[in-house]
Amino acid sequence: MEGAWQARYGRIMLMLGIETSCDETAAAIVGDQGQGLARIRANLVFSQLAEHRPYGGIVPEIAARAHLDRLDGLIARALAEAKVDFADLDGVAATGGPGLIGGVIVGVMEAKAIALARKLPFIAVNHLEGHALSARLGDAVAFPFLLLLVSGGHCQLLAVEGVGRYRRLGTTLDDAAGEAFDKGAKLLGLGYPGGPAIERAAREGDASRLALPRPLKGRAGCDFSFAGLKTALREKVEAETAIDDRFRAAAAASLQAAIGDCLLDRTGHALDLFRERYPEGRSLVVAGGVAANQVLRARLADLAAREGFAFIAPPQYLCTDNAAMIAWAGIERLKLGLSDTLDFAPRPRWPLDPEAKAGARA
Length: 362
Ligand code: KG4
Ligand code: ZN
Known about the structure:
The protein is of the alpha/beta class. It has 2 domains: about 1-135 and about 320-335, ATPase, nucleotide binding domain (Nucleotidyltransferase, domain 5, 2-Layer Sandwich), CATH 3.30.420; about 145-315, ATPase, nucleotide binding domain (Nucleotidyltransferase, domain 5, 2-Layer Sandwich), CATH 3.30.420.40. It is built from 13 helices and 10 strands. It has helices at about 1-10, 50, 60-80, 100-120, 125-135, 135-140, 175-185, 195-200, 225-240, 245-275, 295-305, 315-320, 325-335; strands at about 15-20, 25-30, 40-45, 90-95, 120-125, 145-150, 155-160, 165-170, 285, 310. Strands 3-2-1-4-5 form a 5-stranded mixed sheet, sandwiched between helices. Strands 8-7-6-9-10 form a 5-stranded mixed sheet. A hairpin with a 2-residue loop joins strand 7 (about 155-160) and strand 8. Helix 3 runs parallel beside helix 4 (about 100-120), helix 7 (about 175-185) packs across helix 8 (about 195-200) and helix 8 packs across helix 10. It starts with a helix and ends in a 27-residue tail after the last helix. The relative contact order is 0.18. Bound molecules: 5'-O-[(R)-(carboxyoxy)(hydroxy)phosphoryl]adenosine (KG4) and zinc ion. The site of 5'-O-[(R)-(carboxyoxy)(hydroxy)phosphoryl]adenosine has 19 residues, from helix 7 and helix 8.
């Protein structure tokens, strides 16, 4: 397989990646020399946090306009940093969904325009596939592997059989894990994004102080539910008379422990299922923004070790939204001869496993 694409694309396959599906405008240049030798030549992320802060959440129209303002300049900087030109590229990959449709359209149109002008293949990447394959950007993780995909918009357990081949084992019935962090942080006045704020505050906190529920823990299956956790935390906060830093730290630690317990319990069930269906599978991968959490990474590493699985988590900067993972997914697809035509329509919803029952997200 390696030989086939190298005969066509030369020694190095060089991909421009574009990510605009939420509130980060991102452009990256990634090269692949084969044999798992990928190199990130540039990886620029422009966070729109400041633009959205006055509104207390992401405003889709503002996000789309900010992507439009920033994207050209970001791509030019990425090319300059990588010391390459459009002429050196072998393809252009952009997130084609799921996400906020205005932003996705901006990225997809930009990628199509470059592809058309430069006669390059265009690859529309499913954002979730970008997260799913991000582990293979740094490690030569073999298929199949079990993936815990935990971000602000998604919370799923998937058997990854290959590029474009996913079987969903579980999904969230309500909120995503990242949302549970974000909503908890908001309740505690810790700011956005909530995950890093909770993790920081939790370091000094007593995780046993607030008795929070563990929704679905111990129940059959691999689905998640986090809405009850948020409600329980709100009740504790409302009942507290002195909300000081000590309380905030304890609440953050209790929330992080509860989310972690749920994630571990469901992942444990998924490992059993995965082992049965894919006896040759050996790896547990975690990806998505929540995978940046060090406490969770350590707990998942323990679980994997106990179960005899290798544990792989991408470096933190590849866990949260970025374009290197989109460029990489583009490379993986193009190597298999997969690209898209210029009439590709951006998709606000785009489940990785089309056969899975409709979940709350994706
Ligand atoms: O993957 P991502 O950047 O965007 C989506 O595709 O949603 O994930 C963002 C989510 C946010 O909910 C954020 O609070 C969470 O990832 N997150 C974390 C941490 N860093 C980011 N959650 C827990 N601990 C962290 N250190
Ligand atoms: Zn994401």
